Amino acid sequence: MSRKFFVGGNWKMNGDKASLGELIKTLNSAKLDPNTEVVCGAPSIYLEFARAKLDPKIGVAAQNCYKVKGGAFTGEISPAMIKDVGVHWVILGHSERRWVFGETDALIGQKCAHALENGLGVIACIGEKLDEREAGITEKVINAQTKHFADNIKDWSKVVLAYEPVWAIGTGKTASPAQAQDVHDKLRQWVKANVSEAVANSVRIIYGGSVTGGTCKELGGMKDVDGFLVGGAALKPEFVDIINTHVHI
Question: Could you say which protein family the record assigns here (predicted)?
Answer without folding.
Answer: Belongs to the triosephosphate isomerase family.
